[in-house]
Structures are given as C-alpha cells and as structure tokens.
Specification:
extended; two-stranded parallel sheet; 3 domains; Arc Repressor Mutant, subunit A; two-stranded antiparallel sheet; 221 residues; alpha+beta; single chain
C-alpha cells in the first residue's frame, strides 16, 4: 500500500469522490470483506459489493486474499493507498499548464507549478513502486514572518540569487563540468535531470478559537 496515490484517470477520480466510496476507501486502510465493510458503513452487503467492484475496476482497491467459507469464497480487499490526490491530468485540456505563461510574481503561475508537481510526482512514485525502488526527492516546509513588504521582496530577491548560484555550482552542463565552465551547447551525458521549484506565499491565518469568539460576542451584548 502506498502512502499517497495520485489519480490521473478522470473516471477513477469521479469514482473516488463519491462520499460512500470515500468512506469505503477510508475503512479499507485495513483489509476487510464486503460483509465486514457493510457492518462498518451501515449499508447492505450487496450495495457495498457494488461500490467495491467500481473501486476495484478503477484500480483503487486491490485483492489481498480469498477465503473459503463453506460453498462461498470471501474476497478480502484493501485500498491501494492510505491517501489519494487527484492529478490535474484528470482535468485533461482544462488542467493548468505552467508553460502557457511564466510570471514568478503570479499566484496563478505558482498554482500551475504546484499542479505540475502533483502530476509529475504521481508518475514518478508509481514508477518507483512498480520497480520496487526508492524515489530520491527533497522538500523543505516552514514559515517565516516579514515585518514589511519590502523585507519580503528583499528576501525573495536574495533567495533567487542564492538558488541561481547553487544551480550554477552543481548543474552538470556536460562531461561532469559545472554549467558555469561548460562549453556552449554542452549537454549532460548520463546525468539525471531534477525539477527544482521554490515557492513563497502568505500563510493562512489560524482560525479563531470558537470559545474566544463566543466570549467576545457575549461581551458585546
């Protein structure tokens, strides 16, 4: 079972968004039969079987084992992943494409880059899982508080310069030579390209405590 599976097929995406099927996928984090699931989700076994067949046909559920119970064969199933993410590829021609425009100060371009990351990582994870290999990746997540918009702009500028310097230092422009010293038109021979995306955006404000809101409202009465 994968930690996260990215869904690219539109029909599979539609199937996964059904509330009942979402609940079934959640319950199938642990292997179970249709009978066991029926008791958990409060539906007739026949209806659960209907949803299981749909999920299995789209590759979201997999067979773990079959158990003989008298004249009946009980199928034990589980979800293919603990969590799912729908790829922009499922939206086909209306999916965001960062190649349509490039504006490093555009929130929409940031979204397009994030969508491409989901799509590419989904393919890479699936490929690594099929080959039974570990996928090499790296990510940093954090928060920073800027006193002014000027500070934020200065930080972004310095970050861009620092990243460019690192790329110049480590990028293989051909024959193992860093880009800054590679000849014109040189290409990396045997090197593996990596995608580099750096983003900076405002953090969401934490939701106010319901108790504090209630006390404030009472104080205004």
């Amino acid at each position: 079972m994968l930690d996260i599976e990215v869904i690219e097929d539109p029909a599979a995406a539609e199937a996964s968004l059904d509330p009942i099927r979402t609940r079934i996928l959640q319950e199938l984090a642990e292997p179970a039969s249709a009978t066991q699931l029926a008791a958990k989700v409060g539906l007739p076994r026949q209806k659960v079987n209907y949803h299981l067949k749909a999920l299995e046909s789209h590759g979201l559920v997999e067979l773990v084992e079959e158990r003989k119970k008298g004249n009946v064969t009980e199928r034990i199933l589980r979800a293919t992943a603990a969590s799912y993410l729908i790829s922009p590829a499922a939206l086909a021609s209306v999916a965001p494409d960062p190649r349509r425009f490039a504006d490093r100060f555009s929130a929409f371009w940031l979204l397009a880059l994030a969508g491409r990351t989901v799509q590419e990582m989904g393919k890479l994870i699936a490929g690594a899982a099929a080959a039974k290999k570990k996928l090499a990746s790296f990510a940093i997540d954090g928060e920073i508080t800027f006193r002014t918009a000027t500070d934020r702009a200065a930080f972004a500028e310095e970050l861009g310069v620092a990243v460019t310097r690192l790329v110049d230092k480590y990028h293989d422009g051909g024959s193992g030579t860093p880009a800054g010293r590679a000849g014109a038109g040189a290409t990396a021979a045997g090197g593996r390209k990596h995608r580099l995306v750096v983003v900076l955006h405002p953090a969401l404000k934490a939701p106010k405590n319901p108790t504090e809101l209630k006390e404030k409202d009472q104080g205004n009465d």
